[in-house]
Specification:
single chain, 56 residues, elongated
């Protein structure tokens, strides 16, 4: 339990440091992450639709 708190504090500290030292870099990384997650969701749901369509 204690290790989880330490890791969480380190991650939050790193993100805060990144936000104040290079805000445009953090924004670009966040945008890239969001776009990649969106693409993964679209591919997943398309695969589900293809699977269900193949069953019919």
């Amino acid at each position: 339990m204690k290790a989880k708190k330490v890791i969480l504090i380190l991650v939050v500290g790193f993100l805060l440091y990144w936000m104040f030292s290079d805000p445009s870099g953090l924004a670009g990384a966040g945008e890239s992450l969001a776009l990649n997650v969106w693409d993964l969701l679209l591919n997943f749901f398309q695969a589900v639709l293809d699977f269900v369509g193949a069953l019919a």
